[in-house]
Amino acid sequence: MQNIRFFNTLTKKVEDFVPNEPGKVKLYTCGPTVYHYAHIGNLRCYIMEDILDRTLRYFGYDVKRVMNITDVGHLSGDSDDGDDKMVAGAKREHKTVMQIAKFYTDAFFDDCRKLNIRRPDVVEPATNCVPEFIHMVSALLEKGFAYIAGDNVYFDTSKLKNYYVLSNMNEQDLMVGVRDDVSEDTNKRNKADFVLWFTKSKFDSQELKWESPWGLGYPGWHIECSCISMKHCGEKLDIHCGGVDNIFPHHTNEIAQSEAYIGHKWCNYWFHVHHLNDKNGKMSKSKGEFLTVSLLEDKGYDPLVYRMFCLQSHYRKPLEFSYENLDNVKAAYEKLRRQTSKLVSEAGKGVLNETDACEAYRNKFKEALGNDLNSSSAITVLYDVLKSELSQEEKASLIKEFDTVLNLDLDKALQEKETSVDNETKAYVEAKIAERAEAKKAKDFAKADAIREELLSKGIVIKDTREGTVWEIQ
Ligand code: AMP
Ligand code: ZN
Predict the structure, then answer these.
(1) I want to staple 253 with a disulfide (CB 3.0 to 4.6 A). Which of 28, 222, 315, 434 is the partner?
(2) How far apart are CA 433 and CA 471, in angstroms?
(3) Reduced to 3 states, what is the DSSP secondary structure of residue 442?
(4) Residue 273 to residues 29, 164, 279, 310, 318: CA-CA distances in angstroms?
(5) 245 CB under 6 A from ligand 1?
(6) Cα–ligand 1 centroid distance for 388 (angstroms)
(7) Whose CA is nearest to atom 6 of ligand 1?
(8) Which residues, at least 6 apart from 3, have a Cβ–Cβ distance to it below 8 Å?
């Protein structure tokens, strides 16, 4: 098992990762709220989480990754204010909540497929788990961590010694955070308290409601992730992921209710991805151009160009999106694929006797990823391999291996050459060489040169040897 270190938001340090059970990782990811297409900011988060997931697997860990689908309870204010995003989405499209949930869940996984994001081992919609939510809320009431007020059930944050353990917030920040247009919920005993279960609220239009001991209602967003994580990963979670905007209140509230419920520490490592920004600041669905994977495709970008764009910057730094930057990555990505496809791939076809140099590149690649997931340094190692003195077979083998983490379809680029050489290209080049031989025989040297140039423009180099004319793709 290879060591990996990454920044733990809980301790605010880069730490060596030590799972609860040697060799096994329980990983939870906050999934999308399926009221609209994911924008490419959301997808930055899932791409970088995918790199974490794949690095852990590459390093030899047995990973179980769980993701929820938020199809109820996420209000536009992230706390208990604003409209339910799903209800607003259904209204916008004149459909039911479940219709839009299905449509945008499928759209999300379609985007993930195009971006080579591995589907988590377990994907669980919140609406599947209402009995689990009711169970946890009942237990929190019994233990005295929750109270009923105005018919809603609230979590009492004053019962915890260290509610703000994850964020650097305090009660004072919350006072400042209350927006003028949001009326304060007078049912709350403390400013930071949050709703576990809504029965009576201003959301009369809420479409999905369930019977509960507290009346007909629906769950708050935060309880969903605690329950779904525990349902599939048990009471000890290794890593919890999300975007930095989830640190407060969502993840802070998840810790509060989970640890109050189980009575011990819940999750050891918190992994947060920084935002994708545009010129207006954090990319969101409500302002600026609504950038989706399909829009990038319509503009002629391979979705994997966007994956590479994300990998070239560190997950803990804000990333600024611009078409100019994307164009640069596009050119780099196309060149990388071309260079890769020129390699003669014998990788995987037999035992390769690796040199020490080959092992050294592998170690560098692992070092980059193992050191707080430095994906851009990992890509630099890939370029170093291409430029190196290694044999073509070694290069092809390493690139194939690196691509199990980077997933830029470089393995496909390696195969491209074999297929095209075997099929069309071979027939085309042989015909051109025969035509050139005829031209030379007829002393039409201009035509012979023109054929050589034509082949060269396609990256095909021909050489006249004593055995006849040979060719290769460069
Ligand atoms: P949502 O669908 O709103 O629940 O968000 C899904 C994920 O995307 C969450 O983990 C958010 O933290 C993350 N996210 C939202 N906006 C951005 C952004 N501009 N850049 C990166 N991640 C984001
Ligand atoms: Zn969550």
Answers:
(1) 222
(2) 9
(3) coil
(4) 11, 19, 19, 11, 9
(5) yes
(6) 39
(7) 32
(8) 16, 17, 59, 370
Q: What is the pLDDT of residue 204?
A: 66
Rounded average pLDDT over 173-197: 73
Query: Which atom, in ligand 1's list, is nearest to the CA of 30?
Result: 10
How confident is residue 10, by pLDDT bands cut at 50, 70 and 90? very high
- Higher pLDDT, residue 414 or 104: 104
What pLDDT score does 297 carry? 98
pLDDT in tens, 208-264: 889 999 999 999 999 999 999 999 999 999 999 999 999 999 999 999 999 999 999
- Residue-wise pLDDT tens digits, 305-359: 999 999 999 999 999 999 999 999 999 999 999 999 988 655 455 556 778 889 9
- Residue 326 CA, distance from chain mean position: 18
Pick the CATH number of 5-273 from 1.20.120.530, 3.40.50.2300, 3.40.50.620, 3.40.50.300: 3.40.50.620
pLDDT for res 178 = 44
Q: Which residue has the tokens 């048990």?
A: 234
CATH number (1.20.272, 1.20.1510, 3.30.300, 1.20.120) of 293-420 reads 1.20.120
Q: Which residues pair with 125 in a beta bridge?
A: 69
Strands annotated E in 91-193: 122-125, 146-149, 152-155
**Can you give the pTM of this predicted structure?**
0.86
With a 6 Å cutoff on the Cβ, whether 229 touches ligand 1 is: no
Evaluate: CB of 242 within 6 angstroms of ligand 1. Answer: yes
**Residue 400 CB neighbour total at 10 angstroms:** 18
Q: How far is the CA of 307 from the centre of ligand 1 (A)?
A: 16
Distance 42 CA to ligand 1 centre (A): 4
CA of 219 relative to ligand 2 center, distance in Å: 13
Closest atom of ligand 1 to CA, residue 283: 19
Q: How far apart (Å, rounded) are the C-alpha atoms in residues 228 and 135?
A: 12
* Spatial separation of the C-alpha atoms in residues 114 and 39, rounded to whole Å: 14
